[in-house]
Amino acid sequence: MFRNQVKWKCFLACHTQVDVKYGLYYVSGTGYYHCQNHYDTYDDDRRLALNDYVQQELDISWNALLRNINPPGSMRGFVAASPSTSYPDYFYTWTRDAALVMRVVVDNYNEDGVKRLLHDYVASEIYHQVTSTLCDCLGEPKFNKDGSGYDGSWGRPQNDGPASRAITMMLLAEKSHENYVKKTLVPAIFADLDYVADVWSTPCFDLFEESEGLHSYTLLVMRRALVDGARFASQHSDPGRAATYTRVSEKIRERLETFWDGDHVVVTQEHTGGLYKPSGLDVSVLLGVNQAGTYVAPPPCSLAILATAHALEKSFERLYHVNSAHPDQLGTAIGRYPEDTYDGYRSGSEGNPWFLATAGMAETYYRATLEWQSDQSSVVVNAINGPFFGRLLAQEPEKLIGTTFHYGTPDFEALVGKMTEAADRFMATIQYHQRLNGSLSEQFNRYTGFEQGARDLTWSYASFISAAKARNGRPVK
Ligand code: NOJ
Ligand code: NOJ
């Protein structure tokens, strides 16, 4: 029955104009198989069709993202997580979502009107920093449209928020006028970084707001914030802060190393409350390394991260029906973590694949590929990354172990080609499940493939843009 529903999705897609434009067409009564044929080989036509799609969806995402900043009826600088005000109500500014979205906006600093939006964002975040909240700390997760703190029960604090906010504000500082940096950004950035340096080893809620402990995602973004923060503090004549930030960022690095369990980087240690994930698997590890970048260990191309990407894919591949019903040449639809029961409206149901998780997986692949190329070093297959490469090259991992892909050789180029193709497949999965007008919600149903959860999720658009920029060879900083 479910397979039929999936066929139906494709059947519908194949009938519509937009998908005709994307190269999916319907000829006879078996729409599903026609779609499948379209994806049979990764030929030039398919790559070109995907190029067009990515360019088009980049524009759609950018415009949709902008519509969610300063929406009518909100305080200036309000970044709605989604325009949806009920079922679910996401009409709040989450510190994390806003920081991740505005990081992508900073990357487009020279576009019309963007500087003004960024200044609005900063002003409202400074207001949030001094607003009294239930948490009474900088880790308050979400704020109302009038700028006041949300006062319902919630998982708080969430200390990735101030770290991500500091990263975004430091990126903005690099592009801003000295006066604005000194008067406005420096105090706000130091407030967040001092807080992070203080609380990093205290358990808090994770980015998905359900689990309390020490989280690899939170530590990754904290480390990036403090590494950048040390440089920022030196530039602004504060050697004391620079030394503290460096010292703490080193401690975080050491701590992060203990998250490797021999198979993947685990999501949480020192679990102190809330949801517990026995698998230890969570896509947030990849979101963290994408955001943290190459100089914060472990980078996307590292053994541990490729192994984690493989472990995640293996688990979601089996979990979501869409993955077995999909046209073969689409990439695996990726969710948050295997134990997820949040369906976009309530917990205690069944979790689904998420757009930002699937885009995050693609971005890790693109970033790893860029790292191999810029490092100009050889890629060596061993027991840790073997299963990842086995999946990528459709070979027995054991047979690959010991293989070296020397930089600059045809084999290396072929490997890069395979990685890019695999990453593109995740993007094709997004294309396949998005609404026909290109809008992206939070999730898509694990059986039918249709969108569900908050509509027009701002973070979904930001994550698509971020993946697409990595695909274009210019990842967001
Ligand atoms: C909303 C949270 O943001 C989401 O991550 C969570 O799964 C649900 N509430 C259920 O707690
Ligand atoms: C639920 C997600 O789990 C959380 O990470 C996010 O901040 C909120 N929704 C708002 O988008």
What value does the average pLDDT take?
91
Strand content: 5-15%
Q: Which strands sit side by side, in order, in the main sheet?
A: 3-4-5
Whole-angstrom Rg: 22 Å
Which class do the helix and strand fractions yield? mainly alpha
Question: What count of helical segments does DSSP give?
Answer: 18
Q: For the terminal residues, how far apart are their CA atoms?
A: 45 Å
Instruction: Name the shape in a single word.
Output: globular
Major sheet, described briefly?
3 strands, antiparallel
Tell me how many strands there are: 9
Can you give the helix content as a percent range?
40-55%
Poorly predicted runs are 1-40
Bound molecules: 1-deoxynojirimycin
Spell the H/E element sequence: HHHHEHHEHHEEHHEHHHHEHHEHEEH
Provide the fold topology.
Elements: H1 2-15, H2 17-21, H3 31-38, H4 44-67, E1 93-94, H5 95-107, H6 114-130, E2 142-143, H7 160-175, H8 178-199, E3 204-205, E4 211-215, H9 216-235, H10 239-257, E5 268-274, H11 284-292, H12 303-319, H13 321-325, H14 355-375, E6 379-380, H15 386-393, H16 397-400, E7 404-405, H17 410-433, E8 443-444, E9 451-452, H18 458-471
Antiparallel strand pairs: 1-2, 3-4, 4-5, 6-7, 8-9
Question: Your description of this structure?
Answer:
With 477 residues, the chain is mainly alpha-helical. The chain is built from 18 helices and nine strands. It has helices at 2-15, 17-21, 31-38, 44-67, 95-107, 114-130, 160-175, 178-199, 216-235, 239-257, 284-292, 303-319, 321-325, 355-375, 386-393, 397-400, 410-433, 458-471; strands spanning 93-94, 142-143, 204-205, 211-215, 268-274, 379-380, 404-405, 443-444, 451-452. Helix 1 (2-15) crosses helix 3, helix 14 (355-375) runs antiparallel to helix 17 and helix 14 runs parallel beside helix 18. The chain is globular and about 60 Å long. The N and C termini lie far apart (45 Å). 51% of the residues are buried. The model is unreliable at 1-40 (pLDDT under 50). The structure holds 1-deoxynojirimycin (2 copies).
